[in-house]
Write a structure and sequence with these properties.
The chain is 45% helix and 16% strand. It has 359 residues and is α/β, with parallel strands linked by helices. The strands form three sheets. It has an eight-stranded mixed β-sheet with strand order 2-9-8-7-6-3-4-5, with helices on both faces. The protein is globular and about 60 Å long. The protein starts with a strand and ends with a helix. The structure holds pyridoxal-5'-phosphate.
Length: 359
Amino acid sequence: MTISLARGIPAPECLPVEELAECAEAALRGDGETILSYGSTLGYGPLREWIAERHGVEPGCVVVTNGSLQVFHLLLSALPAGRVLVERPTYDRPRKVLLELGRELGEVGIDADGMDVGELERVLGEGSPPALLYTIPTFQNPTGSTLSVERRRRVAGLADERALPVLEDDPYGLVRFEGEPLPSIFELEGGEHVMYSSSFSKTVAPGLRVGYAIVPAALASQIEPLAAATYITPALLAQATVHEFLRRGLLEPSLERVCGLLRERRDAMLEALERGLSGRARWTEPEGGYFVWLELADDVGASELLARAQDAGVTFVPGADFGGAPNTARLAFSFVSPAEIEEGVARLARLVTATTAPV
Ligand SMILES: Cc1ncc(COP(=O)(O)O)c(C=O)c1O
């Protein structure tokens, strides 16, 4: 059987099926006439209020959408045209969206401490002022890297000094297994130029499709007609189900359970990498999220390796899909079991050691 280290989705046992069934029923019985009709374009009112309170903003600044990727599309439509700065590598879907739209990309390198802010300053100095900086500072997809506090402050400072619109995409922040949570760039900057997006996909369930952004109220008003023209009303049953889940205080215990399941998988992956690839590759050691980033010897092409790995029964995503170097790969530990991770990494390690010298 093929072992997927490619799929960045939660293992089935992470999903709180029973709790959500009860919450969906309670939401329908309690507020069915609202949620089964057309309604607030910017999201289910009580959920917008819950999110606003959690982030210390007015509900008018909260836009709840069908998953947070949709927020990205809406923001791009609402903001002025111009080049968009992204991390290199970055989450493949927004990258693809930008390329397909023909938007000019400015790429900023990333290391174990997140985006290289010195390079960001250089890229900002070249060409016209960018329309947006899109960044994933915590447990980044695909690298698992987290931006240090010092760099967060510098990004917040640059956003202010240069009136640079920033979208901080943070779906993994609460999926932390150890270490102290860091302040968001949004909190550090105060929300004038920095917008924040997150999602209940990693903390509750992705199939609900509930994501959100916090933006200046004027921008939320600009987004409203765009959202109405796209879907009239977002999926309110899902939003009301999430709200019921939160209202019942189920988020914290569920997160604790999910983080426990994912921590075991992360540990299994790091141990298997150490056993199989020590001295032949480098990898990140994230304190949370879904992903480890693998850097192979310079002469190893991850795409060629993938073709052989598929024959050997293991898959991953080549780093080039995210704008990364040809010798890099994203390994997801979120989906398969710890035993499968161990076996999948061992299969991969056998292929790598068969063909390469130590790095
Ligand atoms: C960085 C990042 N942003 C956004 C998303 C999309 O999340 P949603 O399910 O809320 O659309 C993902 C999903 O993998 C992600 O990794």
